[in-house]
Amino acid sequence: xxxxxxxxxxxxxxxxxxxxxxxxxxxxxxxxxxxxxxxxxxxxxxxxxxxxxxxxxxxxxxxxxxxxxxxxxxxxxxxxxxxxxxxxxxxxxxxxxxxxxxxxxxxxxxxxxxxxxxxxxxxxxxxxxxxxxxxxxxxxxxxxxxxxxxxxxxxxxxxxxxxxxxxxxxxxxxxxxxxxxxxxxxxxxxxxxxxxxxxxxxxxxxxxxxxxxxxxxxxxxxxxxxxxxxxxxxxxxxxxxxxxxxxxxxxxxxxxxxxxxxxxxxxxxxxxxxxxxxxxxxxxxxxxxxxxxxxxxxxxxxxxxxxxxxxxxxxxxxxxxxxxxxxxxxxxxxxxxxxxxxxxxxxxxxxxxxxxxxxxxxxxxxxxxxxxxxxxxxxxxxxxxxxxxxxxxxxxxxxxxxxxxxxxxxxxxxxxxxxxxxxxxxxxxxxxxxxxxxxxxxxxxxxxxxxxxxxxxxxxxxxxxxxxxxxxxxxxxxxxxxxxxxxxxxxxxxxxxxxxxxxxxxxxxxxxxxxxxxxxxxxxxxxxxxxxxxxxxxxxxxxxxxxxxxxxxxxxxxxxxxxxxxxxxxxxxxxxxxxxxxxxxxxxxxxxxxxxxxxxxxxxxxxxxxxxxxxxxxxx
Amino acid sequence: xxxxxxxxxxxxxxxxxxxxxxxxxxxxxxxxxxxxxxxxxxxxxxxxxxxxxxxxxxxxxxxxxxxxxxxxxxxxxxxxxxxxxxxxxxxxxxxxxxxxxxxxxxxxxxxxxxxxxxxxxxxxxxxxxxxxxxxxxxxxxxxxxxxxxxxxxxxxxxxxxxxxxxxxxxxxxxxxxxxxxxxxxxxxxxxxxxxxxxxxxxxxxxxxxxxxxxxxxxxxxxxxxxx
Lengths: 620, 227
Hints:
The complex is a heterodimer of chains A (620) and B (227).
Chain A: H1 9-23, E1 31-38, E2 41-43, E3 48-56, E4 70-84, E5 87-100, E6 104-108, E7 115-120, H2 138-141, E8 145-146, E9 157-163, E10 167-169, E11 173-183, E12 187-190, E13 195-196, E14 201-204, E15 211-217, E16 220-233, E17 237-241, E18 243-253, H3 265-271, H4 274-279, E19 284-293, E20 297-302, E21 318-326, E22 330-332, E23 336-347, E24 363-365, E25 369-374, E26 381-392, E27 396-400, E28 404-409, E29 414-419, E30 423-428, H5 435-442, H6 481-536, H7 539-558, H8 567-574, H9 579-594, H10 600-615
Parallel strand pairs in A: 2-7, 10-20, 22-30
Antiparallel strand pairs in A: 1-3, 3-5, 4-5, 6-7, 8-9, 9-11, 11-16, 12-18, 13-18, 14-16, 15-16, 17-20, 18-19, 21-23, 23-26, 24-26, 25-26, 27-30, 28-29
Helix pairs in contact in A: 6-7, 6-10, 7-9, 7-10, 8-9
Chain B: H1 2-21, H2 31-43, H3 47-60, H4 65-77, H5 87-93, H6 98-121, H7 126-150, E1 156-159, E2 163-167, E3 176-181, E4 185-192, E5 195-199, E6 205-209, E7 213-215
Antiparallel strand pairs in B: 1-4, 1-7, 2-3, 4-5, 5-6
Helix pairs in contact in B: 1-6, 2-3, 3-4, 5-7, 6-7
């Protein structure tokens, strides 16, 4: 944020105007000074307003009086100059806010007679506000009082906090003004917005665009930026409050001003102005990063009393008034009405809530909606409107009960309940429709006049009976993560079952292959025995080995145990094709029990039978 | 046997989940209440709120002719074009409530899974089980299509103010691009502080105050409509 360089034009224009006046040879004429103070008696903590006006033939600077115990803060100024037939007349006035620092009677010189300001002890005559009433301006009920102005060491800037009071209740909002003043003739850049040094308070709705004004402090012109905000306390207790503002100041360095160069202080002021300094090439600029801090203000934060707390209290603290209205005075059974509750005033509107009308035997009610319209930039003042759609169930003259709103009044320190009066409404039975309702519904359309008939929207289908079937959310279940877990679980479960079955089958397949490998090894062993027996001519051993080798081979094919294979199985499974095997099994039995002699050629024949069968086995 | 037990257990789990949800939905959105509320707003001369609640009611009871009739009437009397959309979207979205279709989809999944498992175990009954699998996939496909048709509504909003300006930037002092009429349906693109970036059916984009529009499907999922 940059202070406009044009601010520097003011002293320059002033200097040029002074030169023109000098050139015109305007004589030093008489000037009339008038002063006015209002009110002349205030309490400590309040402010008064001093107006100083000068009318004369020359423009004369107005400076505030210096009175110990009083601080003067310029809040407005005006000047007017006119020239008639070569005679120049100027009129200037400055309005000061007078802030007393102590109790006493102060005399302000300059006027005739001198003005007197009486300052009595604070809070002596402040009447408490009545419940339900509020002041439209913070100044009406609790004037915003500026803290003392404390300039930086080089006198270039200050930060000032303006608070209406120094005591708060928990949850209460308080309007505050934060003022940052920078000496005219400087170009300053704000490095950030004002903020609190600690964490005991919060600033709500700090205005982004500060207001600009001009003040004379200590005879020097200052540009004052004012932010409006609402202060809320976070912690209970007494806490010092300080505002910090980071600021970059680019300062014009001047050549040392020669004292009494022209012998006239006014001319010295003109030629020592930065405009002339820059015009003649004098001076330079230096930038300075500073953090301004306001003088600490002590704020006490008190807890809300627990005694006599109304049942419907929602935390609203402030000054409020309530009113209610119905959208129509006459309606029909089944037709909707809009019940509105207006809560206006000043306070913490974020805690202003209302349940409106509960469900009754005579009325069908819907949850209310709320809209807030702020009356100031901070949202401290305004109006909150609750709207509720209600439908009459029975005909006749119905009375809607009054609506209650409870809040805490910080001025009286007590809870208050504001109540709206009951409202009567005529409910007509059946199909008859009120003209008011017709007019209302016609607004729902294209703005044309409603057609003749009982209702502007005869085609609007009637209400449905409440079936009681409801859902917690309008989001379809397939977009709700908790419900998405159901199909996800199903998918995972079936995938797991699929994998389990697949693995089981794979295991069974692997077992079968292992068994086949073992059977092949056993068969090979028996074949080796058979070869040895054939070579030695041992028929008994030969046929026993040959039968065992064949049993192993066939068992692997038929998926049965080798020892269970007998002649019946061979006949049943191999039929005619298994005659040679049948004969070999028979010869083996014969050789086992009779031990008959067999020649080598015969053994070779049976060996070939066995090998043929072995070679015909399917691959594992 | 194992597969049958697994299926039974999953079915029981879903039933338990459904009954567990039941107690918390006793007070919430219902099609009849939304319809009545929309009628109330229509009669009260607030077409934006009426259309908003008709749209919400239509979501819960898509085949209710009364909702369609009143929605069309309010839109027409507000000077808005009738409800449009592709044939596919209309047909699919009017089949049944999305919540009912969700259970249909779960049921389809419950058929498909065991059918595939049993087909592996009993190859001789492959034909009958393939028919079951196809039926399950069909149910799942209907649910999926419904979800695709409903998805755009998740980002739809209705102008509930009489009219509201759409601005070039999300600040109150920004220039106005166009004025949106009450009850107009928009698509929400983004949100920044108190403003929402929307675009209209015609593709025009702008920032509108968030208080002037309301989402058809509120994000919070709680509370009653209109709030």
